Amino acid sequence: MKCVGPTFSEEALQGLKDDYAFTPVLDEVATVLALYGSPTRLKIATLLEATEEMCVCDIAAVLDLSVSAVSQHLGKMRAMRLVKFRRDAQTLYYAMTDHSLNGMVLAALKETRAGVE
Length: 117
Hints:
Layout: H1 10-21, H2 24-35, H3 39-51, E1 54-55, H4 56-63, H5 67-79, E2 83-88, E3 91-96, H6 100-116
Antiparallel strand pairs: 1-3, 2-3
């Protein structure tokens, strides 16, 4: 299909172009959704949501992954403030944060799961 040309005025197009030149909120949402594009990170998120807090080695045992692999995933999630941790001696315990995108993603997962069951 061929485009017939701009249907918006030059001023309207420039206004939209200006509006979309700097979009930090959209950029953050895209980054978080890309992070949650990993099935492993989605599993970690739902696991932490269900248990409220877990240490890295327990997450690794449940998901049958190496501690190193889980730590790498958690590091990416922590960089976006999706998870938080507390240290008890040598052990790190992770939990979900109250980041609004966590709520959105986890609610969508619950809704999807309910529709499938």
